[in-house]
Amino acid sequence: MTLKKIKIIDIFLIFVLCFLTHFMYSWFPNTLFSIFFPVNESIWEHMKMLFTAIMLITLFDFFAFKKWNIKNSNFLTSSFISSLTSVPIFLIIYMPFYKDTGENMILNITVLFIVICISQIISFRVLTNDHMKHLGYLSLIGIIVCYIIFSVLTYYPPESDIFLDHKENKYGINHYVI
Asked: How many CB atoms are closer than 10 A to CB 65?
């Protein structure tokens, strides 16, 4: 198995994981899951879903790389950069369409798949770049900071359209619009 094949498999695994992580909080509502999984249907909470799905695939990659003896020196950096960049890429592609058409499931899924493909291309490029060897610890700190930001914005979201769950008419986990 080659790195390229693993990254192609990752695309489909992340796509499936996004659907599973979408429902994790509703299946197991607790504080820990509210940090990692979407707590409502807002656009922002879906970014947490995408970020977490990419981070979870890191576990698969870790074992796959060991099993097939794939050398890499940027494992954690690759996961962090691909998951972090997926959020703004999704928003840049999705928001103009959302403003014009509103909620559209086919559009959501299509953009999600495209963004996952882009994130795995980025991951592949970082994994094959020998100049990023020393960013592992910084990437670990970045992952922790991202989840701190996700948790703060889940419990204390700004009143902005990106944080509003239009189905429940609420922000974050418990903040209803009056």
From this structure: 17
In this prediction the pTM is 0.93
Residue from 140, 174, 80, 55 nearest 163 by CA: 174
In this prediction, residue 88 carries a pLDDT of: 97
Between CA 108 and CA 94 the distance in angstroms is: 8
Cα separation, 21 vs 36, in Å, equals 9
Annotate 141-159 with DSSP letters as a single string.
HHHHHHHHHHHHHHHS--S
* Higher per-residue pLDDT: 127 or 132: 127
Mean pLDDT, residues 63-80: 91
CA angle 150–34–53, rounded 5-degree value = 70
Tally of domains in the chain = 1
Residue 56 belongs to domain spanning? 3-176
- Return the structure tokens found at 129: 């770049």
CA 73 from centroid of its chain's CA atoms: 22
